[in-house]
From TrEMBL:
Family assignment from sequence similarity: Belongs to the methyltransferase superfamily. RNA methyltransferase RsmG family.
Protein name per Swiss-Prot or TrEMBL: Ribosomal RNA small subunit methyltransferase G
One GO cellular component term noted in the UniProt record for this chain: cytosol
Gene field: rsmG
Tagged with keyword DNA damage: no
E.C. numbers: 2.1.1.170
Subcellular localization: Cytoplasm
InterPro entries attached to this UniProt entry: rRNA_ssu_MeTfrase_G, SAM-dependent_MTases_sf
Organism of this sequence: Rhizobium phaseoli
NCBIfam families (UniProt xref): rsmG_gidB
Single GO molecular function: rRNA (guanine-N7-)-methyltransferase activity
Amino acid sequence: MELNGLRVSRETQARLQHFAALFQKWAKTINLVAPSTLDDLWHRHIADSSQIFQICPEPIRWADLGSGGGFPGVITAIFLAELQDGWVHLVESNHKKAAFLMTALRETEARGSVHAIRIEDAPAEIGECGAISARALADLDGLIGYAAPWMLGKENCRGFFHKGRDYLREIDEARGRWEFDLVEHKSAVEQESVILEISNLRRLV
């Protein structure tokens, strides 16, 4: 099996397929993603989320903010299972979604844990991380604000944020409050989308 040109092992493929089946089951009663995207689960959500691990395939500690239906946090945790190292801390304050995430991690034997708390409370509970991820959560300025407690003054902590066609405006707005190094990774799934890699974060105001 291949995802975005990445060869996926049989074990990881089985975990992803089990996750997809669980997701479809739970999505009948919980609004995990926009209903209009459910029929395209593999392309719009699983393949899209897998790009995070493809960009950063290191066995490190992640904080995944506003994890919702598990994108990209659970997908990253599934890939880490093959490495038998690294960990994803999924932050989701909605208790129904958090219950789904716990079930998904347990049944796929993925390397992650769920924190059913507000994002603002997560840094104190989780501690230091090497990477922060978030998808469909907030504009870039807001995301950097959430990630700042982990990233400010930490050269080794990077943020990886999915963004759509309006990402250039969001970058300009964020640069009014923050200074940071930026790498734009073009999406292999959505033509006008990117994954923004943020590092060396400094506060301007």
